[in-house]
Amino acid sequence: MTEEKNDGKKDENEPAESFPTRAFDVIVLGTGLAESLIASSASKIGKKSVLLLDANDHYGNSFGTLTEARGTDETLFKGWSVPVCLTRSGAVLETHDVVTIDDDECLLASLRRKFSVDVAFKFSLGDDRLTEEVCNSEAYKYLEFKTLEKSFVCVGTSDGKTNGKKGEFEFVPVPASRAEIFENARLSPTEKRGLMRFLKKARDVALEGTGVNYGRGDDANAPIGAPGTEYTLDAEREDEGTFFANDGDNNSSSSSSKNTSMKAFLMESPNDLSEITSDAVAHCVSFCPSVTTKLRGRASEMLITYIRSMGKYGPETPQAGLIPLYGSGEVAQAFCRVAAVSGAITALRQPIKKIERKNSESHIEVLTKGGRVLTCKKLVLGDAQGDIEMVGFANDEIITPNRRESSKFCINRAVLVTNRSMVGSDEAQHRVFVAIPPAARPGKLYKDEDEFVCFATQLDYSSRCCPKDTFIVHLCQKSRRTVPLQDVFADILDNIFSKVKQNGEETKKPTILWGTSYRTPDVDDDIVESFKSDDFVKFPGADCNVTFEETVRLARSANGCLFGDDANASSLSFDTLPLFPKAPQKGEEREEEEEVTGDGETIDLNEDEYALLRDL
Amino acid sequence: MSARKRTLLKLIILGDSGVGKTSLMNQYVNRKFSKQYKATIGADFLTKEVKIDDENLVTMQIWDTAGQERFQSLGVAFYRGADCCVLVYDVNNERSFQNLENWREEFLAQASPADAENFPFIVLGNKTDQDGGQSRVVSEKKALSFCAASGNQCPHFETSAKEDSNVQDAFECAARNALKNEVEEEVYLPDTIVVNKSGSNKSGCC
């Protein structure tokens, strides 16, 4: 698709199709995940009139996926002007760097239609908040998922703990079942017991009250701590209080655990796990992006979500992580369709000039660059919508570029296309997640950079993000702004990958066929927690987490502020309320029209139902 | 698994708003027609099981634009994996006919089918019933020459969703062409996780 054509078409059609002039209940500017969630929920569940606009020519913004079809056809690989293509994604880019250019340019250029490159790759867990929303909203009709096959934690070799060559990383598999823990040669018997005890405790809490029966304990493949295993016999629960640290949402007074990071907690008594094991749990299970973050409550919650997710879809899929096919950008797009199907008007390429809160008329006016004035009761503003003049908003509702850039931190990302798996040729190790903790990187240039973990996710052909025999690796790491972008991933690129073509022989390192790195502003928690008004919400872009969890949490919280009871409008307890409640049971409500369009079976509609469908 | 016969066909219906996409789909699948026009809301996709040429039992999944065509805002996910594209115009509306070429190009750009040259399109001129044919502005001849120009013997039907004229034939033709187009490389069926099944069936993993 070319720009000219689109523009031409748009102009041509503009007079025929314009937005209704009536006031909307909700206008959503931006189609990132949080915005799409709010728009679809307001439309489908809230039965509100919703207008969903995006300044860009595609869905998702920083949650979007780059495909060849979307750039002008030169941008993705040919000419290697990737930054241009990333800019088109609408992500706020501060700086960028093209890592390498290989002689396989022609090959890649011919295959470029087959790549889907996420701006900020994320995956979900089988039982996390996103999956809950996907199921209840029926967005699952537009999505497909594959599981992650394996998780690894990286260990550096200079500390004498590993057998690898000096200066290289060793990939230590993270056990996913009891059998794998027992077979793990790296763990001492004491540590095996300690780990089992810890995970069992987490599991007891995780499954409490869910009524879930996760199989028999004598099955070696039973997830860790399954009822009936030797470690579930003792019913002691005395540590629960400290196990679930509260992050202070309720301002509970000084719980000692509040001041401990997940990793430190695991290494301390009574858990006494080794550093490697602690890293594995903190970063491959709890997905903590840093070794020092004090939000251990979130980390514990993630651990529990992880445990609940394992094996949720049957014994063939013991892993917790779910990768959306064609890239994580599909998720935001699916929710946009949910919104459209429920009656929201959706339109791309609609840049906004100004938004003005008219207190006297208790509505908000939106002025498009095309000169239309639209009004709404509630306004949601996402990222990457260009410079919008904001009138009538409080200072803390406005996030200026300056304010963002004054943050000490930023998010660094790299996307690599490689020719082989970074964890060997094992068939089952193509879609993998790797956490590279600071402890594994003693040779780093910046000594004060010892907090942030680098997350690496590798996707293969089966994820539909790249053609056969190639792999896509997404790297993500938070850092201080003072660290130059090219230094953030330098040691990882050197250790795990090769920048020159190697034909077989000694080293089996994957070659980087193409790669780019870029930096986006950090999305700090202050912004996240600052919803106050019940008529306006501003969402930041994608955060540094590797799962969607925080984004969905944020959307739920915002939804509570916008549409919840006034009495509780500012309460964060809204966080727990899903945007899409569980669908009513059969015969309960007349909401069955959607069944018609459901999963492969056709139901005959009677006249009334048909009329309902038409007139909705 | 790789040898499995294709049993699910994805058809998408494209064309300007108001040409009768949803009505055609409803007439074909549900044998229903409503005179009242409302920009499409609530229509997602409809499915119908059909037997093609007495041998292949296939499930047709016909995707509606859900109103997103009004501002040319159909995302790439909508187009992806389509086995046949049904282009619809209104025989009483010249512009809806002229826009077919735009829709065709948009489809090819977004769906990026492996073999764009031979991808099956089918063109439907709808609303032949209107004013007893008095208000028609697009002649069949004109439509046929568009079809000829777009290659691959693109079939053309003049339909009336209201009077159920030619609708069944048109969709059967679409299904047949979609089946013919089966591309080898797409035989690979990803073995994906069915997330929505889990809610009701939470009984254990082992």
Automatic annotation (TrEMBL), chain A:
Give every RAE1/2 domain span. Answer: 411-525
Q: Which Pfam families match?
A: GDI, RAE1_2_domI_C
Q: Which GO terms describe its biological process?
A: small GTPase-mediated signal transduction; vesicle-mediated transport
Q: Name one GO molecular function term.
A: GDP-dissociation inhibitor activity
- Residue ranges of the region described as Disordered: 580-604
Residue spans of biased composition, Acidic residues class: 590-604
Residues annotated as coiled-coil are none
Query: What name does the UniProt record give this protein?
Result: RAE1/2 domain-containing protein
Source organism: Bathycoccus prasinos
Classification lineage: Eukaryota, Viridiplantae, Chlorophyta, Mamiellophyceae, Mamiellales
Automatic annotation (TrEMBL), chain B:
> By its UniProt entry, which CDD domains does this protein fall under?
Rab7
**Which GO cellular component does the record give, naming just one?**
vacuolar membrane
Which species is the source of this protein? Bathycoccus prasinos
UniProt GO molecular function = GTP binding; GTPase activity
Q: How does it sit in the membrane?
A: Lipid-anchor
Pfam families, A to Z = Ras
- The reply to whether Lyase figures as a keyword in the UniProt entry is no
Q: Does the keyword Membrane apply?
A: yes
Keywords per UniProt: GTP-binding, Lipoprotein, Membrane, Nucleotide-binding, Prenylation, Protein transport, Transport
InterPro entries assigned: P-loop_NTPase, Small_GTP-bd, Small_GTPase
| Subcellular localization | Endomembrane system
Protein name in the entry:
Uncharacterized protein
Q: Hey, which family's this protein in?
A: Belongs to the small GTPase superfamily. Rab family.
Q: Could you give a single Gene Ontology term from the biological process aspect?
A: protein transport
Origin, by domain of life?
Eukaryota
Instruction: Name where it mostly resides.
Output: membrane
